[in-house]
Specification:
The chain is of the alpha/beta class and 234 residues long. It contains ten helices and eight strands. It folds into two domains: 137 residues, Rossmann fold (3-Layer(aba) Sandwich), CATH 3.40.50.1000; 90 residues, Four Helix Bundle (Hemerythrin (Met), subunit A) (Up-down Bundle), CATH 1.20.120.
């Protein structure tokens, strides 16, 4: 609907959380395929730093905006990380595929309390809800599996668009898809990607689940707090 007030929601860390993120899925793969290994989760961290698409938001990756291309790229990063902690090449490639498959398990994504109730309430009050997330190509399937699809007009994943928050072009794409609303608010847990990115694009923003710094104007400790903040902002 043109000009319908719109809420852009981050997903992971905002509406739901996944323990361990990518490294947690990698440890699952190691435990499943290499029982008895002595690798600790923190050993993987430096080998995933500054190399995943959302670590380089200034760079577009339109060449990866199909699930096949995106996951081929990400599996390559996983395999390299496994190799860097001592896993032989063929096994590293197998572990990367297991990591990919396990990461998509919807049971690993846990909704924050009252998520569905708040989304439903805001929808009833006339807000259009849209997910805008740096995430995997299958994000819409995960959202559906968690019973949230009916609350969202669109589910926009960076993997499908080829852009990452805080890239201003990603926000512009979302605003256009939303119908160029006269009022739009980004809600997310990352100060740089969600809050600063939204402000740079001319949107209001609410930080959630992350301790605020002096730059934060609107902070919601839980998703229940979002409604009251929106009322104060209007």
């Amino acid at each position: 609907m043109q000009n319908q007030p719109t809420l852009f929601w981050d997903f992971d860390g905002t509406l739901a959380h996944r323990a361990g993120h990518q490294r947690g899925a990698m440890m699952y793969a190691l435990d499943k395929h290499c029982p008895g290994h002595d690798i600790e989760i923190d050993q993987l961290k430096p080998h995933l730093a500054n190399i995943l698409p959302w670590h380089m938001p200034e760079k577009s990756h339109h060449h990866l905006n199909t699930p096949k291309a995106w996951w081929a790229h990400i599996e390559g990063i996983f395999a390299s990380a496994f190799a860097s902690v001592g896993i032989v090449k063929d096994t590293a490639a197998t572990l990367a595929k297991i990591t990919h498959e396990h990461y998509l398990n919807p049971d690993e994504f846990i909704l924050f309390p009252n998520t569905a109730q708040v989304l439903a309430s805001l929808q009833e009050k006339g807000w259009q809800n849209i997910i805008l997330s740096n995430h995997v190509p299958e994000l819409s399937d995960i959202v559906q599996s968690k019973g949230l699809s009916d609350y969202f007009t669109y589910c926009i994943s960076s993997a499908n668009v080829g852009l990452e928050k805080p890239n201003i072009d990603f926000f512009k794409h979302a605003v256009t898809l939303a119908g160029n609303p006269s009022k739009a608010v980004m809600i997310g847990d990352n100060i740089t990607a969600d809050i600063q990115g939204a402000k740079n694009a001319g949107l209001d923003a609410i930080l959630i689940h992350t301790d605020p710094d002096d730059t934060i104007e609107h902070f919601a400790k839980t998703i229940v707090d979002v409604e009251a903040i929106l009322e104060r902002m209007s």
